[in-house]
């Protein structure tokens, strides 16, 4: 293996790094197959063939492993969205790509989503999506929406809206995910329908961003959303 500088070989992973990666992989699989409640540090240690102390050395608590899950889901979200974004310049279509690929990555966890929500609902929970600990995963989502807006056809949105819209879109993503948790329709079709209707409304509303009479109130609304997210 070599780094970007071909003359400098990349050292192989250390035993500690391999152990950490193994524990992470086991935990992510267990979250997917057993859910939050049934996944324990002891169970992960047993499956990895290491001590509980070794597991705690790499991941101080189960919630640290949940953060690894958040990152894994959002990294796959980015990998799925970016090739599709490269093929479209229409703003609403690009937003649809980010939202839909995000839902796609959540789908394997739907059966156990209420367990994760129960653990994350407290504002003090370290796995709350808006917590400081969850910031790396949320930044990936923010980056995707920023990319979706910035890469859209320039005439679609005034510059001031282009700057502030991603914050509102991220909040929309979190609210859509909350609706998805409670959605018991086959394949969470109600969530997909809600998304499609919201995107249609957005397409109808976009021309109003260029009307002087409505431009300022719409900007105030986006500023309010940004303040709520902050």
Helix content: over 70%
Low-confidence stretches: none
CATH H-level name of the largest domain... which superfamily?
Tetracycline Repressor, domain 2
The chain-level mean pLDDT equals 89
Task: Determine the CATH topology of the largest domain.
Answer: Tetracycline Repressor, domain 2
Shape: elongated
The number of helical runs is 10
Strand content: under 5%
Main sheet, how many strands, which sense, barrel?
none
- Which oligomerization state do the chains in this entry correspond to? single chain
Could you characterize the architecture of this molecule?
- The chain is mainly alpha-helical.
- The protein has 2 domains: 9-60, Homeodomain-like (Arc Repressor Mutant, subunit A), CATH 1.10.10.60; 66-229, Tetracycline Repressor, domain 2 (Orthogonal Bundle), CATH 1.10.357.10.
- The protein is 70% helix and 0% strand.
- It is built from 10 helices and no strands.
- Helix 4 (62-85) runs antiparallel to helix 5 (91-106).
- The longest helix has 24 residues, at 15-38.
């Amino acid at each position: 293996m070599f780094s970007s500088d071909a003359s400098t070989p990349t050292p192989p992973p250390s035993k500690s790094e391999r152990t950490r990666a193994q524990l992470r992989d086991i935990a992510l699989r267990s979250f997917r197959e057993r859910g939050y409640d049934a996944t324990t540090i002891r169970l992960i240690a047993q499956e990895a063939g290491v001590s509980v102390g070794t597991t705690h050395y790499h991941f101080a608590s189960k919630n640290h492993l949940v953060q690894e899950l958040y990152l894994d889901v959002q990294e796959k979200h980015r990998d799925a969205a970016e090739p599709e974004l490269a093929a479209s310049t229409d703003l609403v279509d690009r937003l649809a790509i980010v939202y839909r690929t995000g839902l796609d990555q959540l789908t394997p966890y739907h059966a156990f989503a209420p367990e994760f929500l129960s653990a994350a609902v407290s504002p003090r929970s370290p796995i709350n999506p808006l917590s400081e600990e969850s910031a790396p995963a949320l930044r990936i989502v923010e980056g995707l929406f920023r990319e979706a807006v910035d890469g859209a056809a320039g005439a679609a949105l005034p510059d001031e809206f282009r700057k502030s819209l991603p914050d509102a879109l991220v909040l929309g993503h979190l609210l859509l995910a909350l609706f998805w948790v409670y959605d018991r329709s086959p394949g969470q079709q109600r969530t997909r329908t809600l998304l499609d209707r919201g995107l249609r409304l957005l397409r109808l509303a976009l021309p109003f961003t260029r009307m002087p009479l409505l431009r300022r109130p719409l900007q105030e609304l986006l500023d309010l959303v940004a303040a709520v997210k902050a």
